[in-house]
């Protein structure tokens, strides 16, 4: 990570934490009153092929001791009413601003993967995780909706895992590698702007080759 990218992350995270603090507090109180504790969902993710960290999110599902893997149709019944709203607006990811401050995440980069997929695809994630994982990114903007549709049709955790491994991991990695080749502060700002307004299509998301 370049000093310029880290400075952009720090300034953006501090600014948003100040501006959005009433919203963050309001969401936390709403979850506490409606669904109880814990308010946060904490999950291990990988910062590099060998370095894990704890990712923070607002909890959007009922608790389960057997929870594992990515979220698919097999977990849809566990999503709480307030969780559906938070997921639709991506407000469940607000606590990740603290991950940015800690240096675990950047604002823009590949989404941090679970250890199981890093160990299953070491060569692929060896390339992807050369970039600091991010809250948003090229793959998130271009492929997130398609990924949700694919996984929504999965009825079991095994189906979800198979679909994610076969259909999502390679496509997202390809976009993450494109991002790594073209990364710049200006490109990061463009992707951050696109995340706010959700105005990016599959073709718009692919940077043109100079």
Beta-strand portion reads 5-15%
Which blocks of ≥5 consecutive residues have pLDDT under 50?
199-210
> What spatial form do the alpha-carbon principal axes imply?
globular
Structural class: mainly alpha
How many strand segments?
4
Percentage of residues assigned to helices: 55-70%
* Oligomeric composition of the shown chains: single chain
**CA gyration radius, whole angstroms:** 17 Å
Folded structure, characterized:
By secondary structure, the chain is mainly alpha-helical. It has eight helices and four strands. It has helices spanning 3-35, 81-89, 96-102, 115-120, 122-128, 138-152, 157-182, 185-197, and strands at residues 40-48, 51-58, 106-108, 134-136. Strand 1 and strand 2 (51-58) form a beta hairpin. Residues 199-210 have low confidence and may be disordered.
Secondary structure layout:
Layout: H1 3-35, E1 40-48, E2 51-58, H2 81-89, H3 96-102, E3 106-108, H4 115-120, H5 122-128, E4 134-136, H6 138-152, H7 157-182, H8 185-197
Parallel strand pairs: 3-4
Antiparallel strand pairs: 1-2
């Amino acid at each position: 990570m370049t000093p310029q990218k880290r400075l952009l992350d720090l300034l953006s995270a501090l600014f948003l934490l100040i501006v959005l603090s009433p919203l963050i507090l309001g969401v936390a109180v709403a979850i506490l009153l409606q669904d109880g504790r814990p308010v946060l969902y904490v999950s291990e993710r990988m910062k590099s092929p060998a370095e894990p960290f704890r990712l923070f999110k607002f909890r959007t599902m009922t608790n389960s001791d057997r929870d594992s893997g990515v979220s698919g149709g097999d977990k849809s019944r566990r999503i709480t009413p307030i969780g559906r709203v938070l997921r639709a607006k991506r407000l469940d990811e607000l606590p990740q601003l603290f991950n940015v401050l800690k240096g675990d995440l950047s604002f823009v980069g590949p989404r941090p993967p679970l250890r199981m997929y890093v160990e299953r695809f070491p060569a692929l994630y060896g390339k992807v995780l050369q970039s600091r994982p991010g809250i948003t990114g090229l793959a998130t903007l271009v492929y997130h909706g398609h990924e949700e549709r694919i996984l929504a049709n999965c009825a079991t955790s095994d189906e979800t895992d198979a679909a994610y491994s076969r259909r999502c991991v390679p496509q997202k990695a390809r976009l993450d590698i494109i991002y790594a080749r073209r990364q710049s502060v200006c490109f990061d700002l463009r992707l951050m702007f696109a995340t706010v307004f959700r105005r990016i299509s599959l073709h718009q998301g692919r940077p043109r080759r100079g």
